[in-house]
């Protein structure tokens, strides 16, 4: 099963609407959205346009220190207008005039790495989980996901408690190994699922977060390796792969004997439809929509 990740930080309603429309038409049933009322509304609007009834929504929030709640900002006084950031942004969040569209920025940090003058820094943009998450669950969101790649234990405990109080169909934990060893990863998960009913938690085994811009086995290897660690721990959870996932992920996971529940694909899912989805005339261009849906169908099929 494929879950298309529109981006925890992607607050651009129009791009989410187009993405959900295309992938819903292509047969995808699960979508990961930013925790915003207007984003859920945009997704539902797309669902109605696509004429598909049984879609399932997940929203993602992150703890302090997690890159998924970051946004980029540019110090214009240091900028030499080389254009590296504009050319490298995977989500077209930087205009040619070197201005960042904060709503489109997903916090991947690519621009900051490419900047030769250190003009780009990242800042955290948190959401009020107590306010927004109950509303989203009441309005049909089935999965609440917490990204926990940060060291702020107090924030983790608080947000996990709020998620549990909302009583979603599934609570999800997204974690990678960059900041923790395998032992710490499993200890965190065990602690978080201790009071949850078996198999009501999804562990999203994140390989390398927001790194799936290439369609190779190498890109997805870390996600599969991470899933194997979770699987070997025999926890009563569903396993979802993410972070560097692409059309090769299912094949590699099967070869490695991973019994996965689903595959979450963000960067690659957005990239395969990008040439069509960015058309100014998208909603009137049936050829653009058809080409996008065909590209999306191939990814849906490869992710079974
Ligand atoms: S490269 Fe990544 S961090 Fe930079 S503006 Fe684009 S989405 Fe945001
Ligand atoms: S990469 Fe850095 S120096 Fe180059 S245009 Fe972007 S902000 Fe300016």
What report would you give on this structure?
Helix 1 runs parallel beside helix 2 (37-50), helix 5 packs parallel to helix 6 (153-166) and helix 10 packs antiparallel against helix 11 (286-302). Helix 9 (249-255) links the parallel strand 9 and strand 10 (262-265). This protein is α/β, with parallel strands linked by helices and 304 residues long. The model has no long low-confidence stretch (mean pLDDT 94). Strands 1-2-3-6-7-8-9-10 form an eight-stranded parallel beta barrel, surrounded by seven helices. The protein has a two-stranded antiparallel sheet with strand order 4-5. 41% of the residues lie in helices and 18% in strands. One iron/sulfur cluster binds at residues 74, 79-85, 98, 114-117, 119-120. One iron/sulfur cluster binds next to helix 4.
Topology:
Layout: E1 2-5, H1 13-25, E2 30-34, H2 37-50, E3 56-62, E4 70-74, H3 84-88, H4 110-114, E5 120-124, H5 129-138, E6 141-147, H6 153-166, E7 170-175, H7 182-193, E8 201-206, H8 217-232, E9 238-242, H9 249-255, E10 262-265, H10 267-277, H11 286-302
Parallel strand pairs: 1-2, 1-10, 2-3, 3-6, 6-7, 7-8, 8-9, 9-10
Antiparallel strand pairs: 4-5
Give the overall average pLDDT: 94
- When the domains are counted, the total is 2
Ligands present: iron/sulfur cluster
**CATH fold description of the largest domain:** TIM Barrel
């Amino acid at each position: 099963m494929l879950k298309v990740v529109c981006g925890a930080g992607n607050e651009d309603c129009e791009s989410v609407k187009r993405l959900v429309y295309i992938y819903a038409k292509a047969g995808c049933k699960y979508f990961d959205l930013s925790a915003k009322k207007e984003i859920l509304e945009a997704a539902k609007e797309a669902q109605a346009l696509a004429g598909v009834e049984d879609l399932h929504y997940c929203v993602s929030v992150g703890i302090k220190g997690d890159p998924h709640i970051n946004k980029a900002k540019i110090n214009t006084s240091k900028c030499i207008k080389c254009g590296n950031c504009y050319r490298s942004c995977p989500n077209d969040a930087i205009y040619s005039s070197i201005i960042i569209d904060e709503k489109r920025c997903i916090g991947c940090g690519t621009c900051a790495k490419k900047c030769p003058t250190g003009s780009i820094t990242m800042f955290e943009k948190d959401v009020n989980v107590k306010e927004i998450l109950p509303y989203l669950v009441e309005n049909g969101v089935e999965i609440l996901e917490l990204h926990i790649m940060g060291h702020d234990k107090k924030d983790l405990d608080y947000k996990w408690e709020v998620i549990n109080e909302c009583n979603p169909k599934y609570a999800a934990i997204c974690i990678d190994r960059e900041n923790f060893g395998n032992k710490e990863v499993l200890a965190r998960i065990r602690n978080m699922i201790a009071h949850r009913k078996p198999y009501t938690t999804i562990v999203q085994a994140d390989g390398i977060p927001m790194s799936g811009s290439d369609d190779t086995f190498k890109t997805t290897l870390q996600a599969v390796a991470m899933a194997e660690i979770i699987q070997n721990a025999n926890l009563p959870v569903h396993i979802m792969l993410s972070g560097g996932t692409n059309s090769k992920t299912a094949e590699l996971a099967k070869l490695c004997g991973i019994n996965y529940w689903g595959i979450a694909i963000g960067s690659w899912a957005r990239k395969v439809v990008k040439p069509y989805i960015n058309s100014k005339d998208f909603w009137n261009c049936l050829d653009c929509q058809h080409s996008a849906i065909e590209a999306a169908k191939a990814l849906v099929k490869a992710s079974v």
